[in-house]
Amino acid sequence: TGHNFPEVIEFRDRIAEDPRITLHVAAVQDWIDSGAIQERPDGTRNPLQTVPLVETIQNRNYDAVLGGARRDEEKARAKERVFSVRDSFGGWNPRRQRPELWGLYNGRHQAGENIRVFPISNWTEADIWDYIKARNVEIPDIYYSHDREVFNRGGMWLTAGDWGGPKEGETVETKTVRYRTVGDMSCTGAVLSDAATIDDVIDEIRLSTTTERGATRADDKLSESSMEDRKKEGYF
């Protein structure tokens, strides 16, 4: 989006140095510069990702695209299948979903369509951290407790940046926080936390009563059907 956390981009670029990986970046700024999309008044670019995403899938003729969405995160994602058929415009129609009995998946699709595949759809946040611990998976440090300059907006601790925050009257403070989920800086809230190790994070999650998106994603609060509306337009 151009408003991403530097720690995450640095981690991505380092992983992409592996010669087995080819990194293709579809930058929202390129579509803004071309006039294809316009900046939003609220400064967030997260909803603007849809057009670059759909056009990149079409231009590169991808049959399937992997995503990390899970059913326990959000109600629209709770309805979506592991293999999610998207039309030629990238849109999701819940009525077109296919049965997935006994772990059998149907990847057949028409020309121009694609499949969004969510391999960890049935996992929980705790499952993921158990896996990270068991497999010693490397992740960005942003998921662990650290000191950060943040400001409070609508009950969420957001990171200041060139996306338009903070506004007048919003005070920047240094807090000990971590991130449970990572979008871009304009819509992802930190949680106050002292969980500095994997075991600390796992213990914290066991006691949590809200999902990571429910607690920290401002883009899911634009409307009651915000995520489903975006999926119908082509969003992950």
Average residue pLDDT: 89
Coarse shape: globular
Number of strands: 7
Low-confidence stretches: none
Main sheet summary? 4 strands, antiparallel
Biggest β-sheet: strands ordered side by side in the sheet: 5-4-6-7
CATH topology of the largest domain: Rossmann fold
Q: How far apart, in Å, are the first and last alpha carbons?
A: 14 Å
Helix proportion: 25-40%
Radius of gyration from the CA trace?
A: 18 Å
Organism: Candidatus Corynebacterium avicola
Region (Disordered): 209-236
Protein name: Sulfate adenylyltransferase subunit 2
Domain Phosphoadenosine phosphosulphate reductase: 1-189
TL;DR of this structure?
Keywords: Nucleotidyltransferase, Transferase. With 236 residues, the chain is an alpha+beta fold.
What does this structure look like?
- The chain has 236 residues and is α+β, with helices and mostly antiparallel strands.
- The chain folds into two domains: 117 residues, HUPs (Rossmann fold, 3-Layer(aba) Sandwich); 97 residues, no CATH class.
- Helices cover 28% and strands 13% of the residues.
- The protein has eight helices and seven strands.
- A four-stranded antiparallel beta sheet has the order 5-4-6-7, with no helix packed on it. The protein has a three-stranded mixed beta sheet with strand order 1-3-2, with no helix packed on it.
- The longest helix has 11 residues.
- It starts with 5 loop residues before the first helix and ends with a helix.
- The mean pLDDT is 89.
- InterPro entries: PAPS_reduct_dom, Rossmann-like_a/b/a_fold, Sulfate_adenylyltrnsfr_sub2.
- GO terms for molecular function: nucleotidyltransferase activity.
- Keywords: Nucleotidyltransferase, Transferase.
